[in-house]
Design goal:
Strand content: 15-25%
Distance between the termini: 56 Å
Helix content: 40-55%
Radius of gyration: 25 Å
Number of helices: 16
């Protein structure tokens, strides 16, 4: 079947088969993720396979509504005899340049949305996750028309080569801000639109009156899961000075008992270590009492309190299980400190329940944070809801992925009008009585 005649029912049929294949091969996919990235088998299943299955089921239930053609309402009277409606049609050819930190979840969701929207897709797998993404692409290819899904080699050079050699209607990239900027510059010359899902380097904010034990456990889980290699994990903890001491007391045992975690490479481990050591040198204090050198690509998670806001650990110039703790007095000062850092993707708040409810429903306050996702009394986990979207700003990227906005982003709108041949405004400039009547009706 040619992709050009592959309608939505066909695509949803493929999605059902793909979802079933992911379920059948869930353990194999998780094992491949472990081999590629060093995750535990449970973390690979819970953080990669499970969110992809949730996305597939949500998409199957909601894509017909989201992609349906719609009439355009609110027609002015002087467009008599006209009908307008919009179609959601595929973008055409989409390139997905994949990342490695959640290799099945992130690439799988992007694949589902691009293909269900009706596009032809070319994937550049990450050089760090060839096993897991190779298996994922083999499962996805089953049941697809031959021209719908292609892949490049899983090498670092393949992405740049792909964008030089071929033209696309849209490019989706997930990864670092540095590489995202290069892709944006390259695509700008051909006016190719992009979706850039880049790092957040964000804050977790703890207010006076919050449940400090809950805040400590939740933040620690968010910054240590996947060895801290999560774009929406907190890179700094901003705590009200009035509760800094008891908060650190709740956090310290978690840090002290942490085992070393394997990062994606020795380079990443050395970068985390360098940031932690600089933070201590700037006047900070390691909550574990020591700073251990990495062993190969394994590094022990670290929290440093009292360091400079200008140090690299505070800025989030690392991708691993480490964070700075900075203090300020009151909500306004904490938010101002948060806004002083350049990247915002997902902000986490811990506050007294009544204050949290008020802040969560304060649109102006939420907008002032500059993030695309704000969580209260949790971090990272709520962002995997399949109906929610990720949308970066500034150095955290642009464009939507996942959820309804992500599916819509894989389409373009075509507006169609049909005018009656008998009931219509006459062509040409009206004269005499007709002109006077029309002017009177306009008034």
């Amino acid at each position: 079947m040619a992709a050009s005649v592959w309608d939505l029912d066909d695509r949803l049929g493929w999605l059902a088969g793909f979802s079933a294949a992911v379920e059948v091969h869930a353990d194999e996919l998780a094992a491949a993720v472990c081999a590629d990235c060093g995750k535990s088998s449970w973390e690979a299943f819970a953080a990669d396979v499970l969110p992809l299955l949730a996305c597939a089921r949500w998409t199957a239930a909601n894509a017909p509504r989201i992609l349906a053609s719609r009439p355009v309402r609110g027609k002015p009277w002087w467009l008599v005899g006209q009908r307008h409606w919009t179609h959601r049609v595929p973008l055409g050819s989409v390139a997905l340049i994949a990342t490695w930190n959640y290799p099945v979840q992130l690439l799988g969701i992007q694949l589902v949305q691009a293909i269900v929207a009706g596009n032809r897709v070319t994937v550049k797998p990450s050089e760090h996750s060839p096993r897991s993404q190779g298996l994922l692409l083999r499962l996805a290819a089953d049941g697809l028309p031959a021209d719908v899904l292609r892949r490049t080699p899983a090498t670092r050079e393949a992405g740049a080569d792909l964008l030089v050699r071929e033209s696309f209607d849209h490019v989706v990239f997930t990864g670092s801000t540095e590489v995202g900027r290069q892709i944006a510059v390259g695509c700008a010359s051909s006016l190719t639109p992009t979706t850039l899902e880049l790092s957040g380097c964000d804050s977790a904010i703890v207010l006076q009156g919050a449940d400090l034990a809950l805040a400590a456990r939740t933040i620690w889980q968010a910054l240590s899961m996947n060895a801290g290699q999560t774009c929406m994990a907190p890179r700094r903890i901003l705590v009200d000075a009035a509760v800094q001491r008891p908060f650190l007391a709740a956090l310290a045992p978690l840090v002290a008992g942490a085992a070393p975690r394997a990062l994606i490479s020795e380079v990443a481990a050395r970068q985390v270590d360098a940031c932690v050591r600089e933070a201590v040198a700037s006047g900070g204090h390691s909550l574990s009492g020591v700073v251990e050198a990495p062993e190969g690509r394994r590094v022990r998670p670290a929290i440093v309190s009292g360091c400079s806001p200008q140090c690299r650990l505070s800025r989030g110039d690392h991708f691993g299980p480490a964070a700075a703790v900075l203090a300020a007095h009151g909500l306004d000062a904490l938010v101002a400190l948060h806004r002083s850092f350049p990247q915002h993707l997902a902000v986490s708040f811990f506050a007294p329940p009544a204050q949290a409810r008020a802040l969560a429903h304060d649109r102006a306050f939420v907008a002032s944070l500059g993030a695309g996702f704000v969580t209260f009394h949790d971090a990272v986990l709520p962002t995997v809801h399949p109906a929610t979207s990720i949308r970066g700003r500034g150095l955290s990227g642009w464009g939507a992925s996942r959820g309804e906005d992500g599916l819509i982003a894989m389409t373009r709108t075509v507006t169609v009008s049909q005018t009656s041949v008998s009931r219509r405004i006459p062509a040409g400039e009206p004269q005499g009585l007709t002109r006077r009547l029309l002017r009177a009706m306009l008034r």
